[in-house]
Amino acid sequence: RTLQSFYGIGSLNSSKLLARLSIHPTARLSSLSNQTVLDITAELSNMKIENDLRRELRENIRRLRDMGAYRGRRHAMGMPVRGQRTRTQTATAARLNRIERKG
């Protein structure tokens, strides 16, 4: 669960990482040896997480906007991007697009 607190690591990635390092899923960080913690850190450094992943998403959205693609225009207008209905209930999509477009 601690691994899932990182942006970009979900339950699937964390369980695969724990299985690869043969760590029990319910093990506490305090019960792990220093070498195991270093192994986890090394694995995490190879993954794209936190700011790197956020930066990549921002760049992808910026690229779509600059290209003038339909999806980019929808992001720029703060409207649903993936074909959702716009007659009603666009508040969630507008909120999500506003967050993604910052930067």
Mind sketching the topology for me?
Blueprint lengths: L10 H10 L13 H13 L4 H17 L2 H8 L13 H10 L3
Helix pairs in contact: 3-4
Tags for this entry?
103 residues; mainly alpha; 56% helix
Please tell me about this protein's structure.
There is one protein chain. By secondary structure, the protein is mainly alpha-helical. It has helices at residues 11-20, 34-46, 51-67, 70-77, 91-100. Helix 3 (51-67) packs across helix 4.
End-to-end separation in angstroms reads 29 Å
| Number of helical elements | 5
Which residue ranges are poorly predicted, with pLDDT under 50 across at least 5 consecutive positions? none
Backbone structural class: mainly alpha
Order of helices and strands: HHHHH
Quote the beta fraction: under 5%
Number of strands: 0
| Main pleated sheet | none
How confident overall, as mean pLDDT? Answer: 86
Radius of gyration, Cα only, in angstroms? Answer: 19 Å
Form type: elongated
Q: Helix coverage percent of residues?
A: 55-70%
